[in-house]
Each structure stands twice: as C-alpha cells, then as structure tokens.
Description:
It is a single chain. By secondary structure, the chain is of the alpha/beta class. It has a single domain (about 1-10, about 20-170), classed as Nonspecific Lipid-transfer Protein, Chain A (2-Layer Sandwich). Helix content is about 40%, strand content about 30%. It has helices at about 30-45, 45-55, 70-75, 115-120, 125-130, 140-145, 150-165, and strands at about 1-5, 20, 25, 60-65, 80-90, 90-100, 110-115, 135-140, 170-175, 175-180. Strands 1-6-5-4-7-8 form a six-stranded mixed beta sheet.
Amino acid sequence: MSTRKWRRGSTEGSGQQGRGEGGLVFLSPEWVREVARAVEAARRSDEYFRRLSSAFSLSVMYSIAGLPAPLRALYGGKGEATIFVDLVKGQLRKLEVGDSACPGRADFVVTSDYATVWRIFRGELSPTRAFAEGLLRVEPAASVYRRPGFTARTLVVAGIVLRQARRVATRLVENGSPSEPV
C-alpha cells in the first residue's frame, strides 16, 4: 500500500496532527490511513470479506466538502478533503489523501459533505438512503444503475468497511471544538 501527498501543505508524515485525546480526528489524514490499516487487517483475517472484496479492481475518489476549520488546516486551508483509493482484486494498492483533485483517473467519484459523511459514520444515515436523497453522489451514476450485481456487492463491502472504520477510536471536530470520542 502506498500513501502519499500530492499537494504541498498536506500532513503526510506529520504523525500527530490528526490525533487528539480520545482518538483520531474524523477524516484527518491520519484517521483515513488508520481506517485503511484496519480494513486491510480485516481483509486478511476474514475469509468472507476477502472473497467478496477480491472482485473489486477499481479506483475511487472521495471528495468531502464543508470541512470544519480545524480540518481545513490539515488540508492546506481548503474546505475540501480528497481521498483517492485504488483497489486491485480487493487489495489496497494506493491511498492518497490531500486537498485537491487526485492525480490519477478514478473509475468513480463519490462526493458529499462533512455533515453527511459524519451521519453515515455514526449510523444515523445509511449510504443507500444518502444516495437516494442526493446527499451522496456517485459519478458516473449510470454505472450504478447499469450494474445492479456490482452495486449490491459494493454496498455489502461498504458496510463491512464502515464497521471496521467504526472500530477506530474517532472524535469529531466542529468549527474549532473537539467533541467526545466515539
């Protein structure tokens, strides 16, 4: 797995910028990398997850807008985080966390805002409902509808990934004030 920055000012290698008392800051670059490690560990230890995820060879760029001020500092002062994930047969080949468009071409681009992804993470909103309500957008959308089997497997794998992410000690920051850990 490769992790790297693609824009000057990223926190790659900074070590502690996303860490706080009680857990890592939700969507900080350090939190994203820790979630990736947790998912990879689950993939190695869970045969069902490994078998299901091995069908995926694709790249996805996640773009999350509306970052609170403390997170903007971790993303070069911008209000948007960009996370690029490249999977080959279910294995994470590349993870890039930054504050601008990813350097490679993504098969899918998933966009949302901070409040929505926090609600999804907390289990207050399902990814499927967020998509149906237009709070989570996937481009090209036609691929989602054209390949229902692939979409169904994606939702199952996304649920497993979300469960692994929830195991990482996480805390929310809201415009300057950290909240209690989850």
